[in-house]
Amino acid sequence: MIHFTEFTLDNGLRCIVHEDHTTPMAVLNVIYNVGSRDEDPEQTGFAHLFEHLMFSGSENIPSYDEPLQLVGGENNAFTSPDITNYYLTVPAANLETGFWLESDRMLNLAFSENGLEVQRKVVVEEFKQNYLNQPYGDLWLNLRPLAYQQHSYRWATIGKEISHIENATMQQVRDFFAKHYSPQNAVLVVAGAVTEAEVKRLAEKWFGPIPGGTRYDRQLPQEQRQQEARFLEMTSDVPLSALYKVYHMPGRADDGYYPADLLGDVLGRGKSSRLYQRLVKENPLFNSISASVTGSLEPGLLVVSGKLNTGVSLEEADAAVEAVIAEFREQLIPTEELEKVKNQAEAGIVFSEIELLNRAINLAYSKLIGDANLVNEEGANVQAVTPEQVLAAAQEVVRPDNCSTLYYRAQPKVAAAKLEVAQAEE
Questions:
Q1: How are beta strands 300-308 and 286-293 bridged, if at all?
Q2: Is 41 exposed, middle or buried, given 0-12, 13-18 or 19+ CB atoms closer than 10 A?
Q3: What pTM was estimated for this model as a whole?
C-alpha cells in the first residue's frame, strides 16, 4: 500500500505527497498530459523533442543540470504515446532546488534558435541510430501504421519521419509548449523524506504564481473495430527472421484491460508460457518468443513477437503460433495456470514499489488516469480476473480478423546482392 495525500493549487496543478522517512532522499516528479498521440500528423515527434528541449535551460537558469548536480541530485525523463514524464532525485534537505528548477522551466522555458537546432540534431541522430540503422529498429515505424488506421497511435514516439523534426519551426515549438506545458495539464508528485506541510509550502511558493493555462481537451480520432486481417512483409539485413502479430485490446482504464493483459501473460510471459513451451522447447521453431501488451491509456495492442530458428519459414512459424492462440478462443484456461500468471503479475507490482522513484511515477500516472489510488488497486484487479473473463477476452481480442501480422524476413546483404545479380542476368 502506497500512502499519500493530495491537494490542488489554485492554478490547477494537482499535487501528491508520499512520505517515506526510511530514506534521506526525495523525488520530484512532474508528468505532463501530452504524448505523441497529441501531435499533428504532419508535425510528429514534437512530444519527444520537448523532452530534450526541457533540459536546454530556462530563461533564468541557463543550465538545468549544473545546479542540480551541485546539490547532489540527478534527473531524467521519458516520453510515451500517452505522457511526458520528468523526474529528479535529491537529498531531501535540498528539495527546494528541485522545485526551483522544475517550476522555472514550466514557466520560462528558454526558446532560442541555437537551442532548437542543437536538440533537433540530437533527436535526428537518435532517430537514425535507434530506428533506421539498428537491426529491427524500424519495426514500429511500420507496424504501428499497419495496426492503426485512424488513431494517432499510428506513429511511433520518435515521429513518423525525420523531416518533421528537421523542419520544425520556432513558432510550432512555442505553440506546442503553450498548449501542453502548464499547471492545468500537469501532475506533481513529491516523495521521500518530506512532509505534506513542507511540500505544500514549496508548491505554493514556486508553482503557485504560474498561470494555470488552458486544460487540454483531448479529441482524437477513434480507431474503428478491425474486421479483417492485415499483413505486411519486410526484408532486411538482420540476423534472424522475425514474426510480429498484434491485436487491438482495451485501454489501460477499461474493465477489460486486466483479462487481456493476463491473456498475454499466459500466452507469452517467460519460459513457462505456452508459446515458449510449445514453440521453443517442444517444437523448436523459434529462438525466442514472447507476448506482452503496450499498456496504452487508450485501446492498445497485445503483441506476440518471436525470432525464428535458422531454416524455419515464416509461414510455418506463423501457422504454429496461430494454432496455439486458437486454443485460447476455444477453452477455459486451467485455474492453476491463471493463478500462476496472476501471482507473477502481482509480484511485479510489489517489486516495482520498492524503488521510491517508481512509486512517485506510478502515483502520477494513476492520477493522470483519474484516481491516484488506482496504484493501490492494481493487485486486487489482477487477482479478481476469472478464467471465464480470460476466455471472453481471447474471443474478442485474439480474433484472426483483429490481427495485423508483419513478417520481418532476414536477407543478409551478401545474399541480397547475389539475388539482385541473378535477377539482372535473367
A1: antiparallel
A2: exposed
A3: 0.92
